[in-house]
Specification:
alpha+beta; three-stranded antiparallel beta sheet; elongated
Length: 495
């Protein structure tokens, strides 16, 4: 964590030693910090800021109750500007939800976990407690984060204070839900006081080197919304521009309502028929989108030097081994044998996953366009089918991405109702966009290879040491090295 903070260029000097009292402009006390909370508070300089994580299991429930911490801050001359619940916990923090905005917690729970009667009742109790006892009431019984300062401050993340953000959103927000689980950027969903849904979305790259991807997303969404017909364009968020943020850029876009079909697929209380409807809606939109954005249809042989061979070469160079060499050669042999078959080239979303597709009634929205570019669009369909099936499996308590990939592409395998639905959706897509099913193994292979390369690049970017462990992407790819060259979709026409 210290290494990332230094690399982010957030401060002139960063240290992991607690300075003398009153000497630090910013004190960041993580949950596993070895210093007492009182010492961290005392180190904050006049005008300084404290970010404090409180793990109530590690530090003891009674001594670190929100009430006691709030009293300690007041005694030390600090004012708490924001309290956050952390989901699911501090060790695996994925979301920071402002407790002074109880509607924000309701929205987060509704969009991430569904809208069951039990959750609605829990949200009603939480909102009532906050209205009566203040924001600390929302942190009772859980770990939390508090931000405090020696002078009153706005309860806003720094990226939302910029006047350009308020202009784009139409007003200054009162707080924001922050999603941090993505490897490359933080997503902020700002709320106005009393609002049930966010005012918009603000996206902040985690490093300055990722600013170009943020700009690409804005450019892509703008171009697509300007050229697609209204029914397709309605599913793409409206870009609202970018503003400078530290050494990078923060981007804004219009909020799209709905619940991710990944959350719906992983809900054990939801019927499979309802989940299948989600998949059909998404696959239908994707087929129409790919037909509308196709730039050309060319033979595989004519584009392999542009799209296929560089990818196989990059994998051999960066992640290849003696084990994967026969697999890569098999892919080259397949490409050579099928070189005369036509293949569509056009706009590829590159992360058309179940968690990036939101359903609102009978409509869907497609988010996260930062990686969009020209390529083999059919890989989007494969990503949708595999991630949807994976999330359905999670609702049954099964966490096995390799199994999902094999169920979709190994010919002689038993398929249950969920796998059969994903498989049928892919068959429909290939027929709908007129792609020969014999190309499926090759498209699958390039999709899995690109995922493995992107994971490796992400680890390098963030200074993560992947030695001694295998990424999930590589585990799946290794498991498919035997299956994929022989996996053929059934040849025939759609009934």
């Amino acid at each position: 964590m210290l290494r990332r903070t230094i690399a982010s260029d957030l401060a002139d000097e960063v240290t992991d030693e607690l300075p003398v009292p009153g000497a630090a402009d910013v004190v960041v006390a993580y949950a596993d910090a070895g210093h007492a909370i009182e010492s961290c508070v005392a180190a904050v300089a006049p005008g300084g800021i404290l970010y404090l994580e409180v793990d109530r299991v590690r530090r003891g429930t009674r001594a670190t109750s929100p009430r006691r911490v709030a009293a300690l801050l007041r005694t030390a001359g600090l004012t708490a500007s924001a309290w956050y619940a952390v989901e699911p916990d501090l060790e695996h923090a994925r979301a920071y939800v402002p407790l002074h905005l109880p509607q924000a917690m309701s929205w987060h729970r509704r969009t991430q976990f569904g809208d069951s009667a039990r959750l609605r009742a829990a949200d009603l109790v939480r909102r009532s407690a906050v209205r009566v006892a203040g924001p600390t009431a929302g942190a009772r019984g859980r770990s939390y984060v508090v931000v405090a300062a020696r002078a009153p401050t706005e309860p806003l993340p720094a990226s939302l204070i910029d006047s350009g953000v308020a202009t784009a959103l139409g007003a200054t927000p009162a707080g924001a839900v922050m999603l941090t689980y993505g490897g490359d950027r933080v997503l902020l969903f700002p709320f106005a006081t009393g609002a049930r849904e966010p005012m918009g979305v603000v996206k902040v790259p985690k490093t300055a080197s990722l600013a170009s991807r943020t700009e690409n997303e804005q450019t892509r969404m703008q171009a697509l919304r300007a050229t697609l017909d209204a029914t397709l364009a309605a599913a793409i968020p409206e870009p609202l521009g970018t503003v400078g943020h530290l050494a990078s850029r923060a981007a804004m876009e219009r909020y799209c309502p709905g619940v991710a079909i990944a959350a719906r697929a992983s809900d054990p209380a939801r019927e499979l028929d309802d989940k299948r409807t989600d998949l059909r809606l998404a696959m239908d939109w994707l087929a129409r989108f790919h037909r509308a954005t196709a730039t050309r249809t060319a033979t595989l042989g004519s584009v392999r030097g542009e799209v296929l061979d560089p990818l196989l070469d990059a994998f051999a160079r960066e992640l290849g081994s003696a084990e994967t060499a026969p697999f890569l050669q098999a892919m080259r042999d397949v490409a050579q044998a099928l070189g005369a078959l036509p293949i569509n080239v056009g706009c590829e979303h590159r992360d058309f996953a179940a968690w990036n597709i939101l359903r609102d009634g009978s409509s869907i929205a497609v988010v996260d366009w930062e990686g969009a570019r020209g390529g083999f669009p059919a890989r989007d369909a494969i990503h949708l089918a595999t991630t949807w099936l994976y999330m359905v499996r999670l609702s049954d308590g099964v966490r096995d991405e390799l199994r999902c990939a094999r169920e979709l592409f190994v010919p002689a395998i038993d398929r249950d109702a969920a796998a059969a639905a994903a498989w049928a959706a892919l068959l429909w897509y290939f027929d709908e966009v007129r792609i020969d099913r014999r190309l499926a193994p090759l498209i699958l292979a390039t999709h899995r290879i690109e995922l493995a390369l992107r994971r490796a690049a992400q680890e390098r970017l963030h200074g993560e040491d992947g030695r001694g462990r295998e990424s999930e992407e590589m585990r799946v790819l290794r498991g498919l090295t035997v299956d994929v060259p022989n996996a053929l979709f059934p040849v025939g026409t759609r009934s």
